[in-house]
Design brief:
It is found in: Cytoplasm, Cytoskeleton. By secondary structure, the protein is an all-alpha fold. The protein has three helices and no strands.
């Protein structure tokens, strides 16, 4: 949950910085553009780190799922897998709706 939320937050912030950079006048002062470019680099690095963290969490989730498959009935395991998948999808959808409301 938290890693997905972090990635969504970082992606949104990165999009806003890129949009601001795109709308800057080509003749914009170097002092305006430089902090935005640095912020973009920082957000890209953080997003990459968050992706690495998500990959680790996903691998750990697969291990947990395999253990639970031995303990649950096939139907219970399917329900568990569906729950995990839907939880992440609903977080993404919630963030998208919040962004639309904010606009």
């Amino acid at each position: 949950d938290k890693v997905v939320s972090l990635m969504l937050s970082l992606s949104g912030r990165l999009l806003r910085v890129e949009t601001t950079l795109d709308t800057l006048d080509p003749e914009a002062d170097h002092h305006e553009r430089l902090p935005l470019l640095e912020k973009k680099r920082q957000l890209l690095r953080q997003l990459s780190e968050a992706q690495d963290l998500k990959d680790h969490v996903d691998r750990r989730e697969q291990v947990v799922s395999r253990v639970l498959a031995r303990c649950f009935t096939p139907e219970q395991h399917r329900d568990y897998c569906h729950y995990v998948k839907m939880k992440a999808a609903l977080l993404v959808e919630q963030k998208q709706l919040e962004d639309k409301i904010r606009l």
